[in-house]
């Protein structure tokens, strides 16, 4: 186990084991199989797996986060929300820590869309450190996607509303990672300044 799992202050370490690498590769493979028939909402119908892979990349390359459970959870973060995957399955394959992080970032699909959106704002400050990291990277990826291309069926108003909502969620995630916070602040301010 990498020493970084015990530390918030120093999230970078070189002490990785075969188990750490295995966990991350198995998570990427599991997510690819679960999301295999899903596409993003852009006109090019980008494979959905590009999103969890990109969220994990944001954590390592921009957040300097190398905690194996956090990276595995990023790869798996939409499997329960968007596929038939269960939390029990995640525990069986990836253990209770990874499952718990995914659980923290999974919306309750039984609630209405408005309630889910409000719950993200209300619950963000109470999430664990690792769940906050995954949520920040998820939001950053989706905001960049919105800045790049408007999803099928979305208009400018809906894009703007998503940026305003994301700003409220991100406000509850501060004090977690300076680099991710700064990048989120910049993209949100740039887009809310439009028109
Ligand atoms: N920007 C963008 N988003 C896309 C695209 N394709 C799929 N999505 C997903 O759509 C979700 C945001 O759209 P909403 O209308 O707010 O949510 P909904 O999917 O529940 O209807 C995000 O889900 P999420 O990752 O679970 O995050 P969250 O925003 O629900 O927390 C995002 O990953 C795309 O091409 N561009
Ligand atoms: Mn996501």
Automatic annotation (TrEMBL):
Domain HD residues, every copy: 48-143
Keyword terms: Hydrolase, Manganese, Metal-binding
An MF annotation (GO) of this entry: metal ion binding
Enzyme class: hydrolase
Coiled coil stretches, renumbered: none
Stored PROSITE patterns: HD
E.C. number: 3.1.7.2
Any Pfam family: HD_4
Reactions it catalyzes: guanosine 3',5'-bis(diphosphate) + H2O = GDP + diphosphate + H(+)
SMART domains for the chain: HDc (SM00471)
Cofactors, names only: Mn(2+)
InterPro entries hit by this protein: HD/PDEase_dom (IPR003607), HD_domain (IPR006674), MESH1 (IPR052194)
Lineage: superkingdom: Eukaryota
Family: Belongs to the MESH1 family.
Record's function text: ppGpp hydrolyzing enzyme involved in starvation response.
Protein name: Guanosine-3',5'-bis(diphosphate) 3'-pyrophosphohydrolase MESH1
Source organism: Plectus sambesii
